[in-house]
Specification:
The protein is mostly helical. The protein has one domain. It has six helices and no strands. The longest helix has 16 residues. The radius of gyration is 16 Å and the shape is elongated. It starts with a helix and ends with a helix.
Length: 86
Amino acid sequence: MSPVAWLMGIPWQEAGAAGSLLGIKTILNEFYAFTQLSTLNDTALSVHSRTVMTYALCGFANISSMGIMIGGLGSIVPERETMCSH
């Protein structure tokens, strides 16, 4: 995800660390990604990059959120639950 981080305005030398955080957020969740962001040392990301990553990690666009959405829609319209899961 380093190229995505670079496209968001992160300098290329910091894009590896930022891309790793984006990958963690997408595959796992934003809470674990924020935990990893807080454990990075001060030299890994500049203030600008930390600010960009703080906003980039906010939100629920990840795999586990898809499960929550499918479960919620399935309970609202139980007769279409199989359609929602496909």
